[in-house]
Amino acid sequence: MMVYIMMGVSGAGKTLVGQKLAKRMDLPFFDGDNFHPEANIQKMASGQPLNDNDRRPWLEYLAKNVKEWQQSGGAVLACSALKQKYRATLTSQEEASFIYLKGTLSLIASRLAERSDHFMPEELLQSQFEALEEPREAITVSIDQPPGEIVDDIIAQIQMKEQH
């Protein structure tokens, strides 16, 4: 089994889709946001985007976990992983498969406007799209469909990949 990293901007559905995928694949689910140090959470909550220095120790810690999860049979991790160098850090100790939840700024902004339980202010969404380096080596799915259909799409792509 593999570690699957659900990636994309805030509001793309990484947690919801990741939890559904993990359940369907009988894997544990982890939300990368839960591993942020308190200083990062406070910085984001105050409307400031994290810089690479803020992210580095967090990504390195997640990379250690990716290795452990791979050795214990796989997992699903929700993590924005917006830049190629972040993805490289996440897979620096162990291979993982990225699943890119792709959506438009307007669709994701409308979804974020409906959420009250998240520390990512809507104003930071634009900065996430600006930072996003779309992955070439990832399973890419459009988020303009219901979560169950997104999971069906992901599983179909995983199965196709495994056959090749």
TrEMBL record:
EC primary class: transferase
SUPFAM superfamilies per record: P-loop containing nucleoside triphosphate hydrolases
Keywords: ATP-binding, Kinase, Nucleotide-binding, Transferase
Gene3D superfamilies: P-loop containing nucleotide triphosphate hydrolases
Pathway info: Carbohydrate acid metabolism
Catalytic activity of the protein: D-gluconate + ATP = 6-phospho-D-gluconate + ADP + H(+)
A Pfam family it matches: SKI
Coiled-coil segments: none
EC assignment: 2.7.1.12
Family to which this protein belongs: Belongs to the gluconokinase GntK/GntV family.
NCBIfam families: therm_gnt_kin (TIGR01313)
The name this protein goes by in its record: Gluconokinase
